[in-house]
Amino acid sequence: MGKEIPIRNIYYLLCYAWNRLSEGEIVDVSKIDTTELADLFATVLINGTNHLLRKGLDRGYQSISDEIHAIRGRIDVAVTARRMLIKHGRVCCSYDDFNVNTLPNRILKSTIRFLSGIPTLDTDLKKRLLVLYRDLWQIDDVQLTKHSFRKVQLHTNNRFYRFLLNICEFIQGAWLIDEHTGDYKFRDFVRDPKQMALLFEKFVYNFYRFHLSDDYQIKIERIKWAGTSEVDPELSYLPEMKTDISLRCSGRTIIVDTKYYLDTLQSYREAETIHSANLYQLFAYLKNIATRGGSDAYAEGMLLYPVVDKKIRLSYLLHGHKVSINTVDLGNDWKEIKSELLEMVVN
Hints:
By secondary structure, the protein is an alpha+beta fold.
């Protein structure tokens, strides 16, 4: 890409992509000037966990089996007899204890411990993580695996926990261990076009859902081919058409297709043009959705790319359909990004 995307903007992209913008705004990243993602995630976890501590950590029931002096819950007769506990004035009891040693809290604590061991982490952040880790002494560690995240159950009032667990899961999947040194290194998804394409698509979709849902119907939809075939009546051999984003408002339909390339334009015989496959795909959407009639008959289309080396604003009228090709500069101040994206559809 041209201009490097600031770390705080990556944070906003993730918050939108996870549909956790409101929760993400609880953690202030406006003053972060680091270029290291590890420092960003450490800051978010420190501030986010301290926010939970001020509110009070979530509690849950934990099944415990223990040798105690007073009867509590259910007595395990077999274990008590086998260990001859009665002689020592104890019994083995199984009971439920209401405490903070829940799976979400254990994941948070274990991620804090993991981050504190990243060699490239800012020294001050490492110290703050270790202090926070000690403050969570009532909570056990847990091995961080994909399965541990799948087991988490949260009630509807725990949206901020879900946001922090999104961060923890992202961290768990983004760091790789170096087989030669044993050190952890970050899987730099920012430089991976496929990963960034998925993030960019989800970001734009949820951005418009968050900011335009009062006036627009916003969804991802499948478009059927307007055709027939005697040998393939169900048209099953034709590729699926699924929009990245469909917006509808007061007699207007806009199909937005997001793309993420290292080069916004393609070169052919020393001339720069729009990527032909992108335009053909969008045009197929527009012509096939037009058969539905109504506002879809004159649906508009937009190809949206991140800025690489220059801003692009192109507009055409193709067979009755307005088609625009736009770029958004993810290296800009966040207010400018927000303004750009809204201006593209609200006019």
